[in-house]
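Lab channel / #folding
Pinned by the channel admin:
"Please post every new chain as: sequence first, then the structure tokens as a reply. Keep commentary short and put observations after the output so the thread stays searchable."

First post following the new format, from NK:
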Amino acid sequence: MKSKELKVKNVDNKLKTISGITLITLVITIILLIILAGVVINVTIGENGIISKAKNAKEKYEIAGIREKIEIEILNIELEEDNLGNEVTIELVLQKLLDNKIFETIDKDGKIGYIGSYEVKLKYNENNKVVIEYIKKATGVRITYSLEPSTYTKEERVDILLKVQGKVKSITSPDGIVIYPKQDIAAVDYSVISNGSYTFIIENENGKKEEKNVIVDIIDRLEPKAFEIAAQTTRTGGIKITANAEDEEADESNVKSGIGRYEYYVKLTTASEYTKYDTNEIISLPSGTYKVYAVAYDKAENSIRSTNEVEVVVEEWVQIWNEGDLRNMANNLSKNYIIMQDIELTQNWISIGNRSNPFMGKLEGNNHKITGLVIDSEEEYQGLFGMTYDGKISNLSIIDCNIKGKNSVGALIGLTNYTKQGGGTVIENVKVTGTITGDERVGGIIGYNIAGNITGSTSNVNVSGNGNVGGLVGVNSNGSTVNKAIVKNSYSTGEVSGGNSVGGLIGSNDGGVVTNVYSTSKVTSTYEMAGGLIGYSTYGETKAIVKNAYSTGEVIGERHVGGLIGYAVDTNITNTYSISKLTGKYYIGGLIGKLYRGNIKTSYWTKEKSEVTTNTGGTCLTLEEMQNKKSYESWDFDSGTVWIMKEFPELILNIEI
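Reply from TO:
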């Protein structure tokens, strides 16, 4: 207890010492600290102090953030409008930034948008792109406006909503009415009935007046121009409608708002009411005859109905998903079929359609492929289809086929024919690869083509037979003066061999039209009439026509061996050439092996490539001349649709398979 009391006492003595001896010193120290603290405070909060610098740094940081945000948004707007084919203007960007809630308000005339306490001014740069001119703190009176409606309209009036913030003494509307605001924020709702420029006068608290011009350019009360529509069936059993309406031109009272949308109305002819669609392609409709019309709306919602109404026949399409579905086509030879996915065949194929019951429907390949097509037969009319009459086969690939038959053999069709004037099977966009063997009338795609129309098709098939053998078609023959056999925009690349009438593209062409085609196939004949493009071309109801064609593959034969055609009778040949190497014994020609009553124009060959010196038609050029575009008199190199000059002329086929 004594020791504790002592400590307390000692402490008490020390306190007495401080209070007695150092009191004056303590007071002086406190005063000095207060003075020094004042200096520190002055330094910290002064004009050039830390707090001021922090505020500046914060403002710069905010501006940088705003700039980045707006620049990214402008880039997105540009990309979106470019995809739509629209011009990107400052006015458009301001409105988009307002719609996207980046700007709180905008001033279109001043090209300014407001965000928080900042104003952002836009401008065009040297590349006519919309960029930010400046971002700064908004000062003084802020004047913004909006229109109601905000987009194109046909309404009787438009409201101008003018908003003024700041110390304002008065606002004068375009018709002279003066408003005296009592608060820092004043709003004016002014209605107009026509487009034009409307001026408001704003007077601030110091008596300075400023004009604010508001442009109203959204009123359009004119309906679009009269227009017509077209409509066609689609390969999926639907209707595609084409409408190209135009909006009426602007006048003193109306702007041209442009076409905004369409409505499409469709009904069966037996139905009482139309069904409205917002898309121009209606899929999977029941079969029948439909009536179609459209209504065009401009962006102000003025509308006009198409002046015509179109009737369209929609056919039923049976979907093919597998090998079984494909084989079942044989059970109904007049329906329309569409392949829904690639199909691989697992068993030997039995050709669909024969002379007694030909296939007369349609097959839409839908850009799919069939693989594993194998036929081993001693019968005639062999292929995916044995025989077809009329109908159509399109957008199909047959890959790595292996087919053996007797006469009229092809990967797609053994024989095509027709049942009516102007009829015949239509083949579009078909591709074939593989091997085909037969006796007579053997072709990569079709063995015997009577009045069929083949376009946009290719064959990379090794084809062999006895007579009338072609890389694409064995025999191409007119059925009548009306029912013509046509091969166009097609080519072949496989090897072709046979006895007589052997051609890289066509074995025998009887009065058919062959145009915009070529062959790079190697051709071998053990007897006669071998040609890089056609083995034998002759009269069939009408003269045969060969135009815009060439061959480059080697040709080997006994007699009537030609770079383009082995033997040509009553054939009109125009704009062709051959650079095929030739080997033969009798009647060998750089372009034509033998010509009888033919008419040849602007067609060429060269000794350097053919390695022969004889010819019965066409013009012989040097290799240098063959590689010069100027040598090809009157050929169409300029339109971009027929020929293009590379090492030698090449055809522009634009085949899409």
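NK: Residues 1-27, 30-46 have pLDDT under 50 and may be disordered.
TO: also worth noting, Residues 608 and 623 are 6 Å apart (CA to CA).
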